[in-house]
Amino acid sequence: MPPIGLSAKNTLTTADAKRVEQAFNEKLASVGADAVELPSKQTAKSPVAARANERRRASAIDKTALTLPVPRRIRDREHVKAVAKQPCLVCGRRPADAHHLRIAQSPALGRKVSDEFTVPLCRGHHREAHRCGDEAAWWRKTGIDPGAAARVLWLKSHPVPLSAASAESAHAAGRHMGSIRRNEANLAG
Q1: CB 120 within 8 A of CB 98
Q2: Model confidence, pTM
Q3: Partners of 95 in the β-ladder
Q4: Which residue in 95, 109, 103 sits closest to 150, CA to CA?
Q5: Which DSSP letter does residue 29 get?
Q6: What are phi and psi of 18, to 5 degrees?
Q7: Residue 80's CB: how many other CB atoms inside 10 A?
Q8: What is the dihedral of CA 131, 137, 142, 146, to 10 degrees?
Q9: What is the per-residue pLDDT across 80-121, written as a single tens digit (0 to 9) for each?
């Protein structure tokens, strides 16, 4: 068989796409599920709108009910911007980058951890954290618990309705953030 050029690779005609769609609907119906009407034409006006549509559909699936739930990877630009406005956890410098804690979730191909696991690091410490190879050891060396700091920052931008029990834990988290700030002052001084 002669090699196929890259321009011809991964092409699908409209007629072939309709046949694939029809075969999919027949297979879905035979499995016992209701046949799903798939749109025959793309209705998205731009690639950005298509990605937004895809995100909306993807977020509608609740995978927490699975036997082995998939870790959620929340994206919240406003939270990431708010984290970047905070001083560096290690030295207190500004501006800071929002560092995603790779140790907080299991790795996924080409995906960052959830935005709820972000902490502010100055550019120098951010690069150092990425270059060290063992992020957990790097954080142990600094003497800072980044998970607790990330949780405090997440709760600042996503407050939970407080009950009596959760009010105490939020107060304790605030005390912990205060000790982190004292550590920052000691490291900077």
Answers
A1: yes
A2: 0.50
A3: none
A4: 103
A5: H
A6: -65, -40
A7: 15
A8: 90
A9: 999 999 999 999 999 999 999 988 887 776 778 888 899 999
